[in-house]
Amino acid sequence: MPTSPANKWLVAAVYVLGLFISLLDLTITNVALPVLARDFGASAPTIAWVATSYLLTVAVCIPVSGWLGDRIGTKRTFLFALSVFTIGSLLCGLADSLGTLIAFRALQGIGGGLLTPVGAAMVFRAFPLAERARVSAILTIPTVVAPALGPPLGGYLVRDWSWHWIFLVNVPIGLAGLVLAARGLVEHRIPGTARLDLPGFLLASGGLAATVYALGEIGARDIGDPLVLIPGLGGVAALIAFVLVERRGAAPLIDVGLYRDRLFAVGNLILLLVNAGFFGIGFLMPQFLQSVRGLDPLASGLATFPTALGIILVAPLVGRLYPIVGPRRLIMAGAALAGCAAFALRGVGLTTDLWQVRLQMLPLGVGFGLVFISLQSASFAGISAALTGRATAAYNAVRQVATSCGFALLGTVLAARLTAYGGALGD
User: Fold this and answer.
1) Helix/strand/coil (H, E, C) string of 79-102?
2) pLDDT tens, 370-389?
3) If I label 220, which of 53, 146, 319, 327 is the partner at 20 to 30 A Cα–Cα?
4) Consecutive H or E run containing 174
5) 357 has a pLDDT exceeding 80
6) How many angstroms separate the Cα of 354 from the Cα of each of 307, 339, 346, 367?
7) Mean pLDDT, to the nearest integer, of 306-314?
8) CA-closest candidate to residue 287, choices 306, 301, 305
9) What is the secondary structure of 359-422 as a DSSP string?
10) pLDDT tens for each residue of 25-54
């Protein structure tokens, strides 16, 4: 793996490009769903498959990403993933029916599921332990800017152009990333990597896909609905079986022994909680600002963008404080600040000035920035280079489930409160 200063920052740049477009795609599509439903004459549950099909294939591909990078090489895998994602984006932009759009979104998800874990493994192998806090500070910026940029950018494209452009905008970025990766990356593979652990792959992918599907359906259905209960319980059972099978496997797909490392195990648990909160708030605030306050998607996205700005502002500070203060204090301070800022949002109402909303979103971003940047570096502090690929796959699987949990939890709470008060979201 490249170790020179120029090469390692090139690895980081390539990863940032891939990470940016994959995360941007998560939120930019949500803005267009009402327009897509109108254009295709589809109901809300049907049009939701535009998002669900992407999340499902991401969940299926994440578990195999670490093994694939070790087996055929991280450069080849990254180029393949970015190519599939870019081609999928182009096909989505050219889709002329809802069925083809859903199918092409699933194709996009294959690239997205492989892209982030493999790219993260490349970065953590390229940078020595002493520099990981600094690079984590930089890499955290696109993980927050991209989801925050999605609503205003998607709102602008849908309002002034057409929904096709929310997918086509990925194409030039993807092509630039492919050129940069092909010229600058050096191949890295783990010699002697065993064959694919097929039972582990089927259990992990099936379990994650079923769990993500069930979480995504809770908001639209009751938790006791068979379409939630059956896949949810089946997914949990498959994941439990996966852990039992992998503990006895000679060449496990994801080494569950990684969780014997206390930092990695605790880091994954914190990630599950905090990421669910971050994306849950990111889902709920646009619903309030657009459906209740009547803002258009662009104005709504600009109102929540200070969250990303807070993380950008705090990133350089965390990189400098991490070696001095340590991750524990930074994570505790960030979680406390984010929790207080989120609690303060309960005071936002129909007449609250938008500048007050923007000011309240800023400390929310600062708090989440302190947590995310410190957490990413601390979680991998005890992971060897040989295990980095599979560790990033496990870490990103948790991130994906956490994102779905955030959407599902707050979507369910929102639906329950609307029912309790006999209310409904606006048009």
Assistant:
1) HHHHHHHHHHHHHHHHCCCHHHHH
2) 898 888 777 777 777 667 66
3) 146
4) helix 170-184
5) yes
6) 14, 21, 14, 21
7) 84
8) 301
9) HHHHHHHHHHHHHHHHHHHHHTTT--GGGHHHHHHHHHHHHHHHHHHHHHHHHHHHHHHHHHTT
10) 777 776 677 678 778 887 655 776 787 788
